[in-house]
Amino acid sequence: MNPSLETATEPNQQHASWQVASSPIRILIADDHPPLREGLSALLERQTDLRVTAMAADGEEAVALFRQYQPDVVLMDLRMPRLEGADAVAAICREWTDARIIVLTTFDGDEDIYRALRAGAWGYLLKDVPCEELFAAIRQVHRGKKYIMSQVAQKLTERFQGADLTDRELEVLQLLVQGKSNRDISEALCVVEGTVKFHVRNILEKLGACDRTQAVTIALKRGLARL
């Protein structure tokens, strides 16, 4: 099922109901970079209605701290050790279906976005987001509304307009990214080379790539495969 989208509204259009909240919005930050965690925490704490209750250095710790503190909103990075962000989102949402999680990351590939929202994230922001928009997103998600940056929503729309790769094509694509030849791929997947060539042709066509090198570049940019 495709995740429902609600694109971001401008911060100055946000309702002022948060100003009369009886208690601050409790936030969990999950990011594997200590300076970013500390800096983000200090930034959020300057807002009288926001309070950082816990910080996690990886996805597994994020799940454990959510279980311990059950914060109102989570700010979750995507690329983290032990358990990646989208997997941590899914793990949390399996236990708490109403968990309010915002992905805050540098990765804007359409597949990264889709995977995170499909896992249960309520929002998706890039780390260069203006501070006021970040605050607005937290408040909006806390009120039970999704918040997707406009440029992120556009990339997700483009993803839905394109042709999806099959599971097998994604496997072949990942092996292409690893520099495998058709023979290597056929041995790894236990299929004949002719079948591999068929999948590669389909991948090139669906990605709009002229050759394998360009297909790899597109796959990494979109988040379809990893190095």
Verbal overview:
This protein is of the alpha/beta class and 227 residues long. Helices cover 50% and strands 12% of the residues. The chain contains ten helices and six strands, in the order E-H-E-H-E-H-E-H-E-H-E-H-H-H-H-H. Strands 2-1-3-4-5-6 form a six-stranded parallel beta sheet, sandwiched between helices. Strand 1 (25-30), helix 1 and strand 2 form a beta-alpha-beta unit. Helix 7 (167-177) packs across helix 9 and helix 7 packs across helix 10 (212-222). The longest helix is centred in the last third of the chain and has 15 residues, at 193-207. Mean pLDDT is 87; it is low at 1-7 and 9-21.
The percent of residues in helical segments reads: 40-55%
Count of DSSP-assigned helices: 10
SS elements, strand count:
6
Please give the alpha-carbon distance between the first and last residues. Answer: 28 Å
Structural class: alpha/beta
- Mean pLDDT across every amino acid position: 87
Q: What fraction of the residues are assigned to beta strands by DSSP?
A: 5-15%
